């Protein structure tokens, strides 16, 4: 991996670990943002208006944090894996089905993906912290807390009577 020169004093290896973790997080976040938008657009069924509105908040917040993730990796010399083609190639999340319609089916599909991303972000906290990049670990810590909250909000819709 070629890093751009910067006056940022983190070590070369630390930067490489963080750029790798942040790029993995970025591709998954862009993919998840698009999946949330698909659900927002295509869902039909009970609780439509509440879920439709909640998901709009989710994708706006996800995309705002994806911007912070991309800018952090640029700050330490990296290049974002941010094009649609790279995201499609590298996302670790499963492809989102265009055929899903029922509201709670969407909620289950999204809950799986939020849980999966939260797990890899938590792994990223540990690896960037161990590599000596407390700032990236802090950014990822805030992100994982937000993903946990969104997972809770999704799972609350799946409760059986
Ligand atoms: Fe909309």
From TrEMBL:
Q: Which GO terms describe its molecular function?
A: ferric iron binding; oxidoreductase activity, acting on metal ions
Where does the source fall among the domains of life?
Answer: Bacteria
Please give the InterPro entries that the UniProt record associates with this protein: DPS_DNA-bd, DPS_DNA-bd_CS, Ferritin-like, Ferritin-like_SF, Ferritin_DPS_dom
Ferritin/DPS domain location is 22-160
CDD domains in alphabetical order: DPS
NCBIfam families this protein is in? PRK09448.1
What family classification does the UniProt entry report for this protein? Belongs to the Dps family.
Specify the protein name. DNA starvation/stationary phase protection protein Dps
Q: Which organism is it from?
A: Teichococcus rhizosphaerae
């Amino acid at each position: 991996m070629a890093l751009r020169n910067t006056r940022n004093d983190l070590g070369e290896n630390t930067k490489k670990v963080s750029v790798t973790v942040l790029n993995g997080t970025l591709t998954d976040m862009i993919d998840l943002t698009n999946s949330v938008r698909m659900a927002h657009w295509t869902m039909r069924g009970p609780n439509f208006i509440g879920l439709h509105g909640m998901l709009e908040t989710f994708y706006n917040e996800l995309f705002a944090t994806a911007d912070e993730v991309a800018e952090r990796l640029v700050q330490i010399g990296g290049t974002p894996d941010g094009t649609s083609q790279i995201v499609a190639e590298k996302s670790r999340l499963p492809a989102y089905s265009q055929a899903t319609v029922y509201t709670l089916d969407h909620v289950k599909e999204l809950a799986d993906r939020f849980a999966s991303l939260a797990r890899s972000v938590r792994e990223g906290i540990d690896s960037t912290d161990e590599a000596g990049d407390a700032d990236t670990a802090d950014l990822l810590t805030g992100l994982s807390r937000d993903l946990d909250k969104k997972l809770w909000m999704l799972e609350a819709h799946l409760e059986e009577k």
